[in-house]
Amino acid sequence: MFTCFILFKTEYKEHLYAIILTIATIISMVLIARSHIASIDNKEKTLSSYTKTIIKYTWIVISLFSYNISRALISITLDIPFDSTNDRPITFLFSFFCIFWIYYSLYYLFLFVIFYLPEFVNFSRNKKSKTKFYPGTGYHLSVILPSFFIYIALSNVLGINIPNILKTGTIFTLRYEARDSFFCHNRYMFLTEHPDARFILISEGSYRALIPHKDDINVFRLTCSDKEPFYSLNGVVDKDSLILTAIKERANILINDLYLK
Asked: What whole-number distance in Å separates Cα of residue 244 and Cα of residue 140?
């Protein structure tokens, strides 16, 4: 029911619901992981201790990896220099999701190991008794398999909501790191046809214009000039878009040639 409610709200693209329900989903996933580890741990809390140690020593590596991946993604998406992404709030937002996803994937890798290779970890709750290793077949069927299904369901929910949550987070963070006006020809200006546009200063006379369009944000290069309207806008596009545009142009030329014949 929780998953269906998230999907229902996501269908209408209500960003507030997407934020609240995505946060609730992340909290649910963390609680599931903690309760599962506690249920298979022994009285000495050996597994919990190992888990804390692993997180402690991998935190720096995973954080640096996520941070640099986020910086590269933002640099490519916004078409801004890599060095200018180091202290932007949107960088930390992307890094958080990346760190969470890596640790949660490691948790389910652990589930995979104990499902297929339970002999590598002694889950016996009483080491003095000659009981069989824990978890057994019943535990696999009652806990681990449902956990995999929950992981698949919640992963799909996050996969659907992450674009919305990141777009909403981007719009929110841009309020604090981008202006609503730009400076060209010795005066401040704004785009009358796009009053909600935000502008990131790259260098003197060069900006990135972020223009909301429906449920997306279009990125443009804004360059100051000496002729009216004293600026120029050029959309930021990737190689795939350029190839697709070239194919459409050639197709139109071919259709026109065939029509003339």
From this structure: 49
This prediction's pTM: 0.69
- Per-residue pLDDT tens digits of the chain, which is 261 residues long: 454 445 444 444 555 666 676 677 677 777 777 777 777 777 777 778 888 888 888 889 999 999 999 899 888 888 888 888 888 888 888 888 888 888 878 877 877 776 666 655 554 444 444 444 455 555 555 666 676 677 677 667 666 666 666 677 777 777 777 888 999 989 999 998 888 889 998 888 999 998 887 767 888 999 999 888 899 998 888 788 788 888 888 888 877 767 665
Q: Give all strands of the β-sheet with 231-235 in edge-to-edge order.
A: 198-203, 206-213, 216-224, 231-235
The DSSP code sequence of 159-201 is HHHHHHHHHHHHHHHHHHHSBS-EEETTEEE--TT-TT-EEEE
What gap in Å lies between CA 180 and CA 109, rounded to an integer? 46
| Residue 220, burial from CB neighbour count under 10 angstroms (0-12, 13-18, 19+) | buried
